[in-house]
Write a structure and sequence with these properties.
With 337 residues, this protein is an alpha/beta fold. It has 2 domains: 2-63, Phospho-2-dehydro-3-deoxyheptonate aldolase, domain 1 (Alpha-Beta Plaits, 2-Layer Sandwich), CATH 3.30.70.1140; 83-332, Aldolase class I (TIM Barrel, Alpha-Beta Barrel). The protein is 33% helix and 18% strand. It has helices at 11-23, 107-120, 144-157, 168-174, 191-200, 214-225, 254-261, 270-274, 280-289, 316-332; strands at residues 2-5, 27-32, 37-42, 59-63, 83-85, 88-90, 96-100, 124-126, 160-164, 180-183, 204-207, 232-236, 266-268, 294-298. The strands form 3 sheets. Strands 7-8-9-10-11-12-13-14 form an 8-stranded parallel beta barrel, surrounded by 6 helices. A 4-stranded antiparallel sheet has the order 2-3-1-4, covered by helices on one side. The longest helix is centred in the last third of the chain and has 17 residues, at 316-332. It starts with a strand and ends in a 5-residue tail after the last helix. The structure holds phosphoenolpyruvate and manganese (II) ion. Residues 102, 128, 164, 184-186, 207, 237, 272 line the site of phosphoenolpyruvate. Phosphoenolpyruvate is lined by residues 102, 128, 164, 184-186, 207, 237, 272.
């Protein structure tokens, strides 16, 4: 449940309610809006049934939250969350594009990519250092050496960076080198990993699981926020369906649905959604037109030689063209780019 305080509620009154909640062994999370403070109660709320909270000073109303996710729920935090990554803000009035190779392969590849994507207008460099591949015999990533290269690219270009983490050890290493941690589709319900990235306080890009419902996805976000880290950005990357023409099926309806259920920003990854380069631009346009806060697009200096996901990666000319065509659409949707 959430407790909505009156606009003029005094800090003392808010503190009294928090103390009451905590005395019952529950957690109180404060959401300070522009006008009102909302207190989210997490735990067994039956403990509060006999407390008559409505009659306390400063309390406006009690709203039950029937969904299992509370802190990622729009009822708890009606204003959109804006997540700062480096000097870029996701979820505000800017369209944010993340781009780069599926996997960090070597120094030249990462630096060439960072310089080229910056020129195209991209704000965040992506690059995988820990590569969870469907086959154990495929390239598995450079691990910490890859993170070091991402850090160098950040220093050379000033671009913020995002890297996937696949284990607790990877989290420990990545916090030293990158600006945002990515939880991949295959780890969306790895709850220990979610808690660990929650504890870092760094922004987290949470990809939708291959077969996850929207409610399961928002519950995964809840694990991160419950650790005290509200900096979560969701990423729709396609789900498993019966369709085989594309690698996954991009669920564009997730964008307005997430916007109606949650305050978290959402971006779209048409590269992993389709697995096919020639569909990436059309679906990027669709995502922006549907209200996405950003895009994640794989790019590579020479996709034909990429160690992973070459068939869906754009070269820099194609990325530049995509950015130029997206620009007027972003403006139409009220986003700067
Ligand atoms: C990736 O972004 O590198 C990746 C592996 O994506 P996903 O987890 O969406 O498959
Ligand atoms: Mn990839």
């Amino acid at each position: 449940m959430i407790i909505v305080m009156k606009p003029q509620a005094k800090p003392d009154s808010i503190q009294k309610i928090v103390a009451l909640i905590e005395a019952k062994g529950l957690e109180a999370h404060l959401s300070d809006g522009k006008d009102v403070t909302i207190i989210g109660v997490v735990g067994d709320k039956s403990q509060l049934l006999d407390q008559n909270i409505e009659i306390y000073d400063g309390v406006d109303k009690i709203v039950p939250v029937t969904e299992s996710y509370k802190l990622s729920n729009k009822k708890y935090h009606p204003n959109p969350t804006i997540v700062k990554v480096g000097s870029t803000f996701i979820g505000g009035d800017e369209l944010v594009i993340m781009s780069g190779p599926c996997a960090v392969e070597n120094r030249d590849q990462v630096l060439e990519t960072a310089i080229a994507i910056k020129k195209a207008g991209v704000q965040i460099l992506r690059g995988g250092a820990y590569k969870p591949r469907t086959s154990p015999y495929s390239f598995q990533g450079l691990e910490e050496e890859g993170l070091v290269l991402m850090k160098e690219a950040q220093e050379v270009t000033g671009l913020a960076t995002v890297c996937e983490v696949t284990s607790l050890d990877a989290v420990e290493a990545a916090v030293k080198y990158v600006d945002m941690l990515q939880i991949g589709a295959r780890n969306m319900q790895n709850f220990y990993l979610l808690k660990e990235v929650g504890k870092t306080g760094l922004p987290v890009l949470l990809k939708r699981g291959l077969s996850a419902t929207i409610d399961e996805w928002l519950n995964a976000a809840e694990y991160i926020i419950a650790e005290g880290n509200p900096n979560v950005v969701l990423c729709e990357r396609g789900i498993r369906t019966f369709e085989t023409a594309t690698r996954n099926t991009l669920d564009l309806s997730a964008i307005p649905i997430i916007k109606s259920k949650s305050h978290l920003p959402i971006i779209v990854d048409p590269s992993h959604a389709t697995g096919v380069r020639k569909y990436v631009k059309a679906l990027s346009m669709g995502a922006v037109a549907t209200g996405a806060d950003g895009l994640m697009i794989e790019s590579h200096p020479n996709p034909a030689t990429a160690l992973s996901d070459g068939p869906q990666s754009l070269n820099f000319e194609q990325l530049n063209e995509l950015c130029n065509e997206i620009r007027p659409l972003a403006h139409l949707m009220g986003k700067k780019f």
